[in-house]
Amino acid sequence: MTGIGGVFLRARNPARMAEWYRRHLGVPMSAGGAVTFHWAEAETTTLALFAQDTDYFGEPGQRAMLNLRVDDLAVLLEQLRGRGVEVLPQTEDSEFGRFGWCVDPEGNRIELWEPAPGM
Asked: Domain boundaries in the chain?
């Protein structure tokens, strides 16, 4: 792991939650419910709100999902499989980089993110 890539929360009403975070905590979230914080040396952390009925996190009872930044997604996924960790079979490539997922011992889906060059 090389850092935290993001924190994702389920929300029954993402727009209302984004407004609450802006208003009460001063988090500069977009109307769509996301903000990216920029840290030293190009490190970023994203806080994003997802609809209550999203299946992106896996099981409906999972309220949040940890996103961890990694150096080499393919190597890490292979290492995890070799250690008997549940690794989801799909990966995703996007303009933001490569994504893969594993599941912790309590069934929480964790997103693993290899950022695109320059991110």
From this structure: 3-115
Share of the chain above pLDDT 70, in %: 97
Q: Is the pLDDT of residue 69 over 90?
A: no
Tokens 């970023």, residue located:
44
| Mean pLDDT taken over the chain | 87
- Residue 42, pLDDT > 70, answer no
**What span, in angstroms and rounded, lies between the C-alpha atoms of 83 and 85?**
6
Closest to 60 measured CA to CA, from 72, 48, 52? 52
Distance from chain centroid for Cα 106? 18
Looking at domain 3-115, does it have CATH number 3.10.180.10?
yes
Q: How far apart are CA 93 and CA 47, in angstroms?
A: 20
